Amino acid sequence: MKKAILRSIRAALLELGSATKVELSHKLGISFPTVSKFLTQMAKDGEIFSTGLDGSSGGRRAERYAYNPDYMLGLALFLEKTETNYTIFNCSGDIKEYGQTSGVLTGPIPGLTDQIGRIIAKYPKIRSIAVGVPGAVNNGRIIYIPGYEQFHQFDLKSYFEERFSIPVAVENDMNAAILGYHLKGTQTDNPTLIYLNFGQNGPGAGILVNGDVVRGSTFFSGEVSFVPQYDDRNFLQALEREAGSEEEALREKEIDAVSRLIASFTAILNPHAIIFCINEVSSSLLNLIANRSAAYIPEEHLPELCTSDWKQDYLNGLQHLGLDLMMWEKR
After folding, report:
1. Which of 117, 123, 241, 285 has a Cα at 20 to 30 A from 307?
2. Could you give the CA distance from residue 55 to residue 69 in angstroms, rounded to a whole number?
């Protein structure tokens, strides 16, 4: 109960910018004495600060409080084959540092531990860690991550929480990306969206249905490599480049494979949009994919095809997960 009240007060102050005890009591449905008790302790800890007294309306002037966004910091990082990208952010989402270090997925797990340890030593106010990985994740355990066998069936969440005594979230890369894209705001309330990435580790998809990220019954959703497309090939195999193939023929094969996948998503989920990584697909290529997709699905039912900055969306999604952990942090 104490953690829930503390989280509510933190979230309300960050949302409102500032508030009095009476305003918080009314907004949260928490008694005035309880709000007063929590704010007194939070002010003592430096978590909130007074912005002064409100104007007088005939009675005692109320003191107004604001949250100190730098009281806690979060670490968001995602692992790729060739590099680790990370951000340090405060409770308002302001970026304190953006960095990139060497990749650790192909090495022993302690290499990643050392990377995180050095960052925490530099920023001792870090109170949450959100890690993105190119694999399927079930409650912090990596259950499928082809090519990086040392991480397979590894409980990364428990491992880091035990070593750093900081709450940790571990998320699939495309789930984090679709969440980050959605948080930027869309023209549709509760949209259904698909985010496609071809990346360093093979194709993957993030799926959002009616505003909620879909992870599936065994947390395996979005592993589109396995989608059967031709008599003897799945989606991943259809994208593989054969030695000696001419560029034009290769492009035609890839366009057809992607268009068939779009047709499958359209027939099953009828999404509002399918998002591609901006550095992977040009506008002219999107037009070719849209035209080919119309050969498989009536054009009026096809989703909008668009592009976005995958890396930024990915980090935004991880920061959201990290911020949620910070809101529940105990003093």
Report:
1. 241
2. 25
Q: How many CB atoms lie within 10 A of CB 92?
A: 12
Class of residue 25 by CB neighbours under 10 A (exposed 0-12, middle 13-18, buried 19+): middle
Lay out the sheet containing 136-138: strands in order across.
136-138, 141-144, 154-155
Q: Give the separation between CA 258 and CA 296, rounded to whole angstroms.
A: 12
The answer to whether 65 and 43 are in contact (CB under 8 A) is yes
Name the 3-class secondary structure at 278: coil
Query: Residue 240 CB: number of other CB atoms within 10 A?
Result: 12
Sort strands 193-197 and 273-277 into parallel, antiparallel or unpaired: parallel
If we measure between CA atoms, which residue out of 167, 166, 131, 165 comes closest to residue 151? Answer: 131
Binned at pLDDT 50, 70 and 90, residue 216 comes out as very high
Q: DSSP of 183-198, one letter per residue?
A: HT--SSSS--EEEEE-
The token duo for 196 is: 């496609």
Q: 323 near 95, Cβ under 8 Å?
A: no
Give the CA angle between residues 46, 50, 51 to the nearest 5°.
Answer: 135
Strands annotated E in the chain: 19-20, 48-53, 63-67, 73-79, 83-90, 95-102, 126-133, 136-138, 141-144, 154-155, 168-172, 193-197, 204-209, 212-213, 273-277, 304-308
Following CA atoms 233, 238, 242, 246 in sequence, which dihedral angle do they give, to the nearest 10 degrees? 130
* Distance in angstroms (rounded) separating the CA atoms of residues 173 and 217: 18
pLDDT, position 110: 83
Predicted confidence (pLDDT) per residue in 45-75, tens digit: 999 999 988 766 666 788 999 999 999 999 9
Tokens of 88: 């340090």
Distance CA 202, CA 145 (A): 11
